[in-house]
Queue: 2 jobs
Job 1
Amino acid sequence: MPDITVLRLGHRPERDKRITTHVALTARAFGANRVVVSTKDPGLEESVRDVVKRFGGDFTISTGINWRRYLQEYPGMVVHLTMYGLPVDEVAPQVRDGEVLVVVGAEKVPPEVYQRADLNVAVGNQPHSEVAALAILLDRIFQGRALYKEFPGGRMRVLPCERGKNVVELSEQ
Amino acid sequence: MPDITVLRLGHRPERDKRITTHVALTARAFGANRVVVSTKDPGLEESVRDVVKRFGGDFTISTGINWRRYLQEYPGMVVHLTMYGLPVDEVAPQVRDGEVLVVVGAEKVPPEVYQRADLNVAVGNQPHSEVAALAILLDRIFQGRALYKEFPGGRMRVLPCERGKNVVELSEQ
């Protein structure tokens, strides 16, 4: 199983808070291990850690990282999500087990990211959403099994339900 | 092929503009035919129509619709995306050809939506993103072919590319 880090570039706390929260929670729900965000944003960290505390698993978030250095020194495969890249269904099978960095940009991504990436991957060549693109990429990397990951240790568990809500609150030990 | 309308509930123009734009563009890119949004938002309409004009296809957007009436009078199957629902991989095969309404809520969704829905569908039972959930649902409904939809008539076309950007600007007739 690959160990997946999502690197979020170009996050602007005022404008992008909700989108980056969606990126982080999608990363977690679809089997990534951690998210690192270029801009410092304690509020974002807190929202994501709160979900981990309530719903379990060991997903982590760091913000305010030097993304250029992180990218240059990253020891594993770098996969950059861009609408200009190669089709995800062709490229996802090339993602190997081991460490994988998935780069998710906001508006403009510097050319050096395209250069550094081992794979520039497009989830369709239409403009849509980095959140949707990340979900589909991780779904394909895990061959449709990303959604079946277990999240041990949370205080809450949602059980599938035909109509309404079925939430189990687990007692704290 | 189903004819898919996405109904976006609870959109607050200040807070949700970017998320709802992502919902609309994801709907378009993954094969839905139109989006209808409960709150009036001319700026949102304009952003989405601008993408359609540039990138093609016949996706439409309406905002400021009476969602209760729309939902009650909808003649086809109603599929409600919720983290409390039944697993998407079990339920998506039950989506038939014909008219399908996919309901995408924001924070709190009134109980009547769960009641009216023919299917309450969860894309995993973890909190993440309605944008990610919509992408995966449409991907499953179209059995992995949603991304291969053609969008005739646009002024721009992005061609897959290993590194960098390859955009063809088509001359206007």
Job 2
Amino acid sequence: MLGAHPALPVGAGDDCAVCLLDHSEFDQVFTTDPVIENVHFIKGECPERIGNKAVGRVLSDIAAMGANPQWMLVNVVASPDQSFSELEKIYEGINALCARFGATVIGGDLAQGPCLELHIFGTGLLPSGSALLRSGAQPGDLILITGPLGCSISGKHLDFVPRVEEGIFLRKSNKVNAMMDISDGLATDLRHILKQSGVGAILDSEQIPKNGNLEQALFDGEDFELLFTVPADNVDSLILEWESEFSSSLSVIGEITTDKGILKVQRENELQTLATKAFEHFSGK
Amino acid sequence: MLGAHPALPVGAGDDCAVCLLDHSEFDQVFTTDPVIENVHFIKGECPERIGNKAVGRVLSDIAAMGANPQWMLVNVVASPDQSFSELEKIYEGINALCARFGATVIGGDLAQGPCLELHIFGTGLLPSGSALLRSGAQPGDLILITGPLGCSISGKHLDFVPRVEEGIFLRKSNKVNAMMDISDGLATDLRHILKQSGVGAILDSEQIPKNGNLEQALFDGEDFELLFTVPADNVDSLILEWESEFSSSLSVIGEITTDKGILKVQRENELQTLATKAFEHFSGK
């Protein structure tokens, strides 16, 4: 039930919506994410970490388009007994991460409600037509990810640093066909790329960098790493450029196939097709 | 704790933030408003009306700058037993009002929480430097409002039509010095203009168009009418132009004075100073 508009080349279904900026050489991307007490964090959690997570999710969506972060608005919902100093510390967490990536909090609202919630809206900018979408993967592309996956519940889901600089670097490389951030788990999120690009994929279980075991790397959520596809001929040079820019890891974990919508995992000499049902079971959703 | 930026001429404290659009003849305005069950509407309320109110509040803020509405993002928080058809009807209410004013819903998110909430983020566009701010009122300006005030709780707070066309008309007239929308009651909101413009005001109780009595017109909230100030010499011609465009009422209700921060009400031959304390008592806040 979302809208269409001639100046809206990418609406719902990607990490951000992409809108044309008239009379400009830039496109503007828009995203929003909620962070809710006892859903996304436990009541009493360190407030700076809550702020980091709330704005980090938004910055990760902007990074997944390859865009430069721009403006942020923050809606806070809080119960009448909410501590003011806790709110200040949440804003400190928000502002620290924004400052790191050139984003600015320009407004928002405060309302009373049953529990603590943050709803952050963010915009980003990038050169016209350069947004990295989920729909661009091609058969033969290799599949790459930043950072290890899994077990983010042990702390990473609150303390992660969104891959903003990496996303901008990858967009500027002109070597990436499709990109998104991993928020719901590798298996679930890769399926979005497969569906929107009309392709399939084979993952090599040995090559997936893991915190924990394979199940956790495939199905845990909230890693906020970048998942992207690159034509095979470009991968070696991209990795060389990456290593001269970043100390963080970059892993080739599989390949895009013509097998529409089919996700397979190579595991100990066996090629298993990963059923959507299996994911639903594993993920507990 | 909100940010500053060279491309942010107006940050927190007005109806919207105003941001420069580089290489363009336009400024972009940003705002966000929450609508929460049992705070802004009663549980079980007609869902189309909830949607109308949620996006109407955002459109009213954009109208109060004199801007043309542009993009909207919608965060929905709902409990696990939320009816899907109710959500569809909320979106129908949102989309109907957006369509009327050329706004487009381009994204959003859905999360689980304790009760139904909508957080809508919106942008608008206007020619560079033309936003109508709270800070522009001058001594000698007359004070005008659209529509009658008070008793919105009887239905208007859900069914109101934001004054988008009127806001654009007033901006284009080049006759308005300061403008905002009335969401917290005339007395409270006029004080924002007084504070930010460094002026005072005298209201004529007889001239305030009322739904209900004077107290209700001064202190009830959620009327979403436009409150603005116009140099006295321009008022007659503005009213003539208004009457050729709109059938809705426009009322001159008072005058801006040099009496910094002082709000007085002329009532039955008596000039009363309205204490902030009195307002707090009346408003029940």
